[in-house]
Amino acid sequence: MGRKEKPEKSTVMQVDAEETDDITPPVVVVLPGEAVQLPSNVSTVVRLGPGLRQDADGVAVTKAGVLRQTAQGDKVWVEGNQRRYVPQLNESVLGVVTAKLGENYRVDIGGPHPASLGVLAFEGATKRNRPNLEIGSLVFARVSLANKDMEPELDCINPTNGKADGFGEVKGGFMFKCSLGLSRSLLDPSNPFLQHLGNICPFETAVGMNGRVWLRSDKAKQTILIMQALLESETIPYNKARAHIKKFKTELGEK
């Protein structure tokens, strides 16, 4: 005779109403050599980013990490927490001017080679009217050329409209370094940490994909606390973001 098994009891989990808006997105971990299925509902050409390579029959993974794609599905890449930054086309970076050579600035972006930034690579720049960057100036720029056989090139112009759109020299504030994984996570539209911090106190930020973050707020103490909150957020899941930021409410000036 067959033995009847008792049905498993269903488990009901109560979720705090304040945390239901913080949903951790699904994570797909890939390893080198695996094949990747590209989105099939995209009408435009799908661009391959870092960590992926076009093979004869499909797309293969070249480094371990988390598979990511844009909301439109027109770009797919592998996000890994590597130590050294390798410049990629159209990535936004924070760099420090180290020298001026003729019509170009040498900029340290944390990569294997310094980048080149032209004096005319700014919105509205001409030979008579162009920015004069000092040694040590901080710039928020876009990688306009990335080739393993050439030094990377930067510009401070949005190629879609010819405007600055936030690119250019960054004045004041404070820049700190973080892991490449954290900087890319902060640029994720579904990341709730910056939004929750902005609800507590106003501040400005620029996040470079080269592991550098710039902050500016009304008080130096607030800037330091925001930096601490962001650095600690690297190991905290998205659904715990609200509880994590609550710890900084009192110190940031809100009761």
Automatic annotation (TrEMBL):
<dbReference type="GO" id="GO:0071038">
    <property type="term" value="P:TRAMP-dependent tRNA surveillance pathway"/>
</dbReference>
<dbReference type="GO" id="GO:0000177">
    <property type="term" value="C:cytoplasmic exosome (RNase complex)"/>
</dbReference>
<dbReference type="Pfam" id="PF21262">
    <property type="entry name" value="RRP40_S1"/>
</dbReference>
<comment type="similarity">
    <text>Belongs to the RRP40 family.</text>
</comment>
<dbReference type="InterPro" id="IPR049469">
    <property type="entry name" value="RRP40_KH-I"/>
</dbReference>
<keyword id="KW-0963">Cytoplasm</keyword>
<dbReference type="InterPro" id="IPR004088">
    <property type="entry name" value="KH_dom_type_1"/>
</dbReference>
<dbReference type="GO" id="GO:0000176">
    <property type="term" value="C:nuclear exosome (RNase complex)"/>
</dbReference>
<dbReference type="GO" id="GO:0010468">
    <property type="term" value="P:regulation of gene expression"/>
</dbReference>
<dbReference type="GO" id="GO:0071035">
    <property type="term" value="P:nuclear polyadenylation-dependent rRNA catabolic process"/>
</dbReference>
<dbReference type="GO" id="GO:0071051">
    <property type="term" value="P:poly(A)-dependent snoRNA 3'-end processing"/>
</dbReference>
<dbReference type="Pfam" id="PF15985">
    <property type="entry name" value="KH_6"/>
</dbReference>
<dbReference type="InterPro" id="IPR012340">
    <property type="entry name" value="NA-bd_OB-fold"/>
</dbReference>
<dbReference type="InterPro" id="IPR026699">
    <property type="entry name" value="Exosome_RNA_bind1/RRP40/RRP4"/>
</dbReference>
<feature type="domain" description="Exosome complex exonuclease Rrp40 N-terminal">
    <location>
        <begin position="46"/>
        <end position="84"/>
    </location>
</feature>
<dbReference type="InterPro" id="IPR036612">
    <property type="entry name" value="KH_dom_type_1_sf"/>
</dbReference>
<keyword id="KW-0694">RNA-binding</keyword>
<keyword id="KW-0698">rRNA processing</keyword>
<protein>
    <recommendedName>
        <fullName>Ribosomal RNA-processing protein 40</fullName>
    </recommendedName>
</protein>
<dbReference type="GO" id="GO:0003723">
    <property type="term" value="F:RNA binding"/>
</dbReference>
<dbReference type="GO" id="GO:0071034">
    <property type="term" value="P:CUT catabolic process"/>
</dbReference>
<keyword id="KW-0271">Exosome</keyword>
<dbReference type="GO" id="GO:0005730">
    <property type="term" value="C:nucleolus"/>
</dbReference>
<dbReference type="GO" id="GO:0000467">
    <property type="term" value="P:exonucleolytic trimming to generate mature 3'-end of 5.8S rRNA from tricistronic rRNA transcript (SSU-rRNA, 5.8S rRNA, LSU-rRNA)"/>
</dbReference>
<dbReference type="Pfam" id="PF18311">
    <property type="entry name" value="Rrp40_N"/>
</dbReference>
<dbReference type="GO" id="GO:0034475">
    <property type="term" value="P:U4 snRNA 3'-end processing"/>
</dbReference>
<feature type="domain" description="K Homology">
    <location>
        <begin position="173"/>
        <end position="219"/>
    </location>
</feature>
<dbReference type="InterPro" id="IPR037319">
    <property type="entry name" value="Rrp40_S1"/>
</dbReference>
<keyword id="KW-0539">Nucleus</keyword>
<dbReference type="InterPro" id="IPR041054">
    <property type="entry name" value="Rrp40_N_euk"/>
</dbReference>
